[in-house]
Amino acid sequence: MNTEYVWIGHDNIINLILKVDGVAQDMSDITKITLSIDLLLISSTNLVTDKILWNKGGYAAGEIRLQLGEVSGLAAGRHDAVLTVYDATNTDGIVWGIVPLMIKADPEAA
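User: That's the sequence. What structure does it adopt?
Assistant: Structure tokens below.
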């Protein structure tokens, strides 16, 4: 997976497509997605205010969107974030994989 960039303090969105055997995953049964960045856990149940969203109008099959720039506690630098997906059958979650992140300081900070 390519390194994705997060700009602290900004609204940039990371779009990912989750696939199984090369086919985009049906996201309709997903109940929760988490992203673990070092000791920081970002958890989403797909509420409009969450930082991880999926299965919304206009989204492609398998698409999730991460909006991480406003997450409190992010440290600038390179991080391997662990993405975990939950549904009614997999209540302990399936570790989907690693999302390589480069978290950058706010370029507009004084």
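The first strand starts at residue 4 and ends at 7.
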